[in-house]
Write a sequence for this structure.
């Protein structure tokens, strides 16, 4: 038999629907409102610490729930909580390694509905409501400091600002970087603005060509200018003088090769002589930033050099090809030459890559020299 609801019954039904709807929204907020999303496992959570509210933590008698605080825990208190591993009289068992921010929780009484816990971290007290629900219990909860930040509105960047943020490719600037690297121990204290983010380390990276050895001894990095300054020496252990073009010296970083933007080095090395060099590598081949770190194994690769008798004095076989992942649209790097690898058949000579301002110069054009 069907009955028509009276206005009073409709009113009561509406109240029930509103209450169940509000409860459903609250549960969704608890599940997704504390650093969780639909793509994450609810058993791995993250919450922001707030000393002005009681934070809910869902625990279970079936497994341990681990809380990780950002700072060491000073004390843990709560009615019905016990730290005795063999104790069964309390409601919730907890453990806390000394001088750590880790706290483990496990429900001892399966009929427990909720308990309350207070944790002292530094000078702050944080309160938690521990709810017993095996189906929604967390395995781990990472607690982070609450940070209230006002999001700054996005600023429009003009093409001029983009150009100004790029490295400055200027010969005078490169010479200045070379001097700053040489005078670093003295100038760094008196002019710290010139050494923002500056790094320096001593190495002994050797490029051995038999009778000629090039050694990198110091690496200086200037991140603001995206520049790396290398200093070292070139030693001629042979019986004849050798000569090379310093402007054609390149820098090897791992399995990649970069042209030197500025080189301070003599082009002739007499027998038994050791000369100093300093060079600056700046930017990538495409004109952007290379972001080379100072921890790279930098080596100096000398160009084809000749003895005073006219024969080619460089005995350097080519390195076997290595697979290098390249980003689409970027110019591929040339393959390096290794003094230690086995010598494959000699390939046809390829034109050397040059900086734009050097193209067309007669002293860098092999065909022009031949004519």
């Amino acid at each position: 038999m069907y009955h028509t609801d009276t206005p009073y019954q409709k009113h009561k039904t509406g109240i029930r629907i509103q209450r169940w709807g509000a409860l459903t929204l609250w549960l969704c907020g608890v599940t997704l409102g504390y650093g969780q999303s639909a793509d994450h496992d609810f058993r791995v959570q993250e919450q922001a610490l707030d000393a002005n509210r009681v934070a809910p933590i869902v625990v279970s008698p079936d497994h341990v729930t681990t809380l990780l605080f950002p700072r060491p825990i000073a004390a843990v208190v709560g009615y019905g909580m016990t730290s005795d591993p063999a104790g069964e009289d309390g409601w919730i068992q907890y453990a806390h390694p000394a001088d750590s921010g880790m706290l483990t929780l496990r429900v001892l009484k399966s009929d427990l509905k909720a308990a309350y816990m207070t944790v002292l971290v530094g000078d702050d007290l944080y309160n938690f409501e521990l709810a017993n629900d095996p189906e929604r219990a967390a395995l781990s909860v990472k607690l982070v400091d609450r940070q209230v930040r006002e999001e700054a509105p996005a600023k429009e960047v003009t093409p001029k600002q983009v150009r100004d943020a790029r490295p400055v490719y200027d010969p005078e600037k490169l010479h200045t970087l070379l001097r700053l690297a040489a005078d670093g121990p003295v100038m760094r204290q008196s002019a710290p603005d010139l050494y923002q983010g500056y790094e320096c380390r001593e190495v002994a990276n050797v490029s051995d060509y038999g009778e000629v050895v090039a050694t990198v001894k110091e690496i200086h990095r200037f991140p603001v200018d995206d520049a790396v300054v290398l200093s070292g020496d070139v030693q001629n252990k042979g019986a004849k003088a050798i000569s090379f073009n310093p402007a054609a010296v390149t820098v090897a970083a791992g399995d990649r090769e970069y042209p030197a933007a500025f080189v301070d080095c003599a082009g002739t090395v007499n027998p038994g002589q050791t000369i100093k060099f300093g060079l600056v590598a700046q930017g990538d081949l495409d004109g952007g930033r290379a972001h080379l770190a100072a921890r790279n194994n930098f080596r100096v690769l000398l160009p084809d050099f000749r003895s005073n008798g006219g024969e080619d004095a460089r005995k350097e076989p080519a390195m076997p090809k290595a697979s290098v992942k390249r980003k689409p649209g970027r110019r591929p790097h040339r393959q390096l030459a290794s003094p230690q690898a086995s010598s494959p058949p000699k390939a046809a000579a390829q034109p050397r890559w040059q900086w734009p301002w050097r193209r067309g110069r007669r002293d860098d054009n092999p065909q022009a020299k031949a004519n």
